[in-house]
Design a protein that fits this description.
The protein is an alpha+beta fold and 196 residues long. The chain has one domain. The protein is built from 5 helices and 12 strands. The strands form 2 sheets. Strands 1, 6, 7, 8, 9, 11 and 12 form a 7-stranded mixed beta sheet that branches. A hairpin with a 6-residue loop joins strand 2 and strand 3. The longest helix is centred in the middle third of the chain and has 10 residues. It is globular. It starts with 14 loop residues before the first helix and ends with a strand.
């Protein structure tokens, strides 16, 4: 059963301030496991670190197009999303030593010597508004996305769509950060590839 909890906004506190407040970071200690869905060919990357598991599964462009065309998206809007390197993302608190709290803005997509957070739901909603997408389509979009921030007690988890904005076929690493009782932890997925 998925339980959602309210999470207080960070009030604009930058990531650097978080690192200053909590200087001890526990790095990831697990390798990335990769598997292929035999029916679709979609790849999944998974790591487990500090009692938390993180999983990314490619959502193939045709899957993303069909999903959003059936929810009232224009062909142009569905295409923009489908080709933005989309993943089904699952984060689980399997056995962390307390409640796991994360802010997606603190995660990093590492590609070509650059790093930045994944594309935010707000980024997409602003684009959908400029493209004239109706409110029902925007609501359907929001509910399908990975949450921008959340807290999970042991045994809780959630899933949703996540985009990097990278080109089809691009390779990157994903560094996820979360806190447990004020202590920062990290998990890293290595050599993730955007679906072609």
């Amino acid at each position: 059963m998925i339980q959602r909890k309210a999470f207080l906004p960070r009030m604009g506190m930058p990531t650097l301030a978080l690192l200053v407040c909590f200087p001890a970071v526990n790095p990831a200690r697990a390798d990335t496991l990769t598997r292929t869905d035999p029916e679709t060919g979609a790849l999944t990357w998974e790591t487990r670190a500090h009692g938390v598991s993180l999983q990314l599964t490619q959502i193939l462009p045709d899957q993303a197009r069909a999903f959003y065309l059936n929810r009232g998206f224009s062909a142009d809007a569905a295409e923009r999303f489908a080709t933005a390197c989309v993943y089904m993302t699952v984060l689980r608190n399997d056995a962390a030593p307390g409640e796991v709290a994360f802010h997606l803005a603190d995660w990093r997509v590492l590609n070509g010597g650059q790093e930045r957070p994944p594309l935010s739901t707000e980024h997409w909603l602003a684009l959908w508004q400029t493209l004239g997408l109706g409110e029902p389509a925007r609501i359907a979009f929001r509910w399908a996305q990975f949450p921008p921030e959340q807290e999970y007690a042991p045994g809780e988890w959630n899933q949703g769509m996540l985009t990097t904005g990278l080109a089809p076929g691009a390779q990157f690493d994903l560094l996820a950060r979360w806190t447990v009782a004020g202590q920062i932890y990290e998990g890293k997925l290595n050599h993730v590839v955007c679906a072609r």
